[in-house]
Amino acid sequence: MNISKTNYILTINYDNELKSTAMTTETIYHAALVTHITGLTMMAGTTLMDYVIFKQVWKQYAIDKMRSLAISEAMVKLQIVFGVGFLFLIISGVTMMYLTHGVFGEQTWFRIKFGLILLIMINGLAFGRTQGVRLRKLLPEEISGGNLNDQILKIRGNLTLFHISQLAIFLTIFVLSVFKFN
């Protein structure tokens, strides 16, 4: 009987039969890690694209308010990509925690990262989404002749602050994930 230690689990090697199980666990871990990175990248990338496209909304707002409304309405689909990325992040994170028996959960960098992910979600739902909904509600009223320019400009400032804060949080998460400070 040969007892060998792999990266994450202890295996007993009976003529290499159980050794393939360890490789499967390692492969699952790496697949979950790739999925985790993909999910985080989808979320951060969606936020960046949202910011870039909103800059176009504001350029068009000065020229053609109908076009700015159309661009704003089309951006709603980005929320789906963000949500799929978040789903990837959660499922793969739980998978990795299970496979490593929660070893990362005790580390400071992970706890901070987890809190920042929660902050992104809360900020996105409570602030970013509400500002986007208000904008999509006010733009048609402004086009119909309402004098809502001041309210719309306030939303513009709020959304700019929202995007910059979200991107800064994502950058912090990437740095924590790479350097793994304790």
Explain this structure.
The chain is mainly alpha-helical. It has one domain. Helices cover 79% and strands 4% of the residues. The protein is built from 5 helices and 2 strands; from the N terminus they run ββααααα. The protein has helices at 19-63, 65-74, 78-99, 108-143, 149-179, and strands at residues 2-5, 10-13. Strands 1-2 form a two-stranded antiparallel sheet. A hairpin with a 4-residue loop joins β1 and β2. The longest helix is centred in the first third of the chain and has 45 residues, at 19-63. The radius of gyration is 22 Å and the shape is elongated. Residues 1-18 have low confidence and may be disordered.
Notable traits:
mainly alpha, 2 strands, 182 residues
Q: Over the alpha carbons, how many angstroms does the gyration radius reach? A: 22 Å
Shape: elongated
Give the number of helices. 5
Q: What is the oligomer described by this structure?
A: single chain
Poorly predicted spans: 1-18
Q: Estimate percent helicity.
A: over 70%
Give the domain tally.
1
Structural class: mainly alpha
Give the N-terminus to C-terminus distance in angstroms. 38 Å
Secondary-structure element order, as H and E? Answer: EEHHHHH
Number of strands: 2
Q: Approximately what portion of the residues adopt beta-strand conformation?
A: under 5%
> pLDDT average, as an integer?
87
Strand order of the largest sheet: 1-2
Q: What can be said about the biggest beta sheet? A: 2 strands, antiparallel
